[in-house]
Amino acid sequence: MTNRRTFLKLGALSSGALIANNAFSHISSSPKKVTIQSNKPIVLSTWNFGLKANEAAWEVLSKNGRALDAVETGVMVPEGDPTERSVGYGGRPDRDGRVTLDACIMDEQANIGSVACLEHIKHPISVARAVMEKTPHVMLVGDGALQFALSQGFKKENLLVEESEKEWKEWLKNSNYKPIVNIENHDTIGMIALDANGNLSGACTTSGMAYKMHGRLGDSPIIGAGLYVDNEIGAATATGHGEEVIRIAGCHLVVELMRQGKTPEQACKETVARVVKLTANRKKNLKDIQVGFIALNKQGEYGAYCVQGGFNYAVHDSTGNKLINSEYHLHE
Ligand code: SD4
What we know:
- The structure is a single chain.
- By secondary structure, the protein is of the alpha+beta class.
- 31% of the residues lie in helices and 22% in strands.
- The protein is built from nine helices and 14 strands.
- Strand 4 and strand 5 form a beta hairpin.
- Helix 2 (50-61) packs antiparallel against helix 3 (67-80) and helix 3 packs antiparallel against helix 4 (124-134).
- The longest helix has 18 residues, at 264-281.
- The protein is globular.
- The structure holds N-hydroxy-L-asparagine (SD4).
- N-hydroxy-L-asparagine binds next to strand 10.
- N-hydroxy-L-asparagine binds at residues 86, 186-188, 206, 208-209, 218-220, 239-242.
C-alpha cells in the first residue's frame, strides 16, 4: 500500500499525484481492494498573487474547513489589495473610468452565485456568495447587484485608486483597446480547492479587461466558462481573454474531459487546443490571445495549460505553497 510519504514523492514527480480510489491489485488471484490516499486538502489559484491567496485559503483548509470558505477567503486577499490592478479594489477601470467587477462561486452541491458589472463593492466574491445563499437566483448584474449588496450590508466605496486613474487618463490619449498578452490586462484570480472531507469548490473574481466597453462581461462571472465544479469529478477555472473562454464554455469542457478520464493537465491542454482551432478557423492571430486553465480532480491531482508562455499558478498542499509555470501551446 502506498504510504503518505511515497505518495507525496510520487506526487512531486508527476506534478499532481497518481491515485486510483478503490483500485484492485492484479497480482493476487483474489482481488484485494487497495485504497490509496488522495492528495487533500489542496488549493490552487491563478498567477503570482495566488501564493498569498493560497496562504489565506490554507488557513481554512488546514483546520478541516470547507473548500467553499477557503476559496472565498483566499480570493478576498487580492480583491482587497489596492496594488493589484486587475482584481477588486484597485482594479483598472473600463473605458469610461468605471471600475466594474465580475465574480462567481460554486460549491460541492452545485450551488452557484454570480455578480457581474458590479461597481463600488470591494469584495464581489462575497456578494456572489450572498446571491447563492440568500436569493432564489444565481446571477445579478449592474445596479441590481449593487442594490442587493447594499441591502446585505456591504459598504459602498470608491474602488478607483489614484494609480489606476492616472493610467486610464494616459490610455484615454489614444483610447486604443488592444489587450497586451500577459501584461496588465488579464490577471483574474481563479481558485479551486479540495478540502479534507473530499469536497470541491471554486471562486473566480476580476475587474475584467482594462478599458473594456462599459457593460462588457468576460468569462469570470459565468459558471461553465470562467469556473466549473463537479464534486464527482473535479474543478477548473480560467484566466485570459474572456471572449475566447466563453466561446468554448471552457471550464465546463475541462471538467467534462476529466470525466472522460483525462488528467487535469491533459484536459486543460485539449481545451486550449479547442481555442487554438477556433482561432485559426476564425482567421484570428493566436499571438494576440492568451487563455489559461487550471484544473484539480477529485483525487487532488492538478495541472494547467495555456496558449502562450508566461502564465503561472500557485499550489498549496501539505508539502507547502509553490508557484508553477504552466505548460503552453505556442512555442515560437
Ligand atoms: C475577462 N478573463 O474579463 C477575464 C480577464 C482576466 O485573467 O483577467 N483574466 O475576460
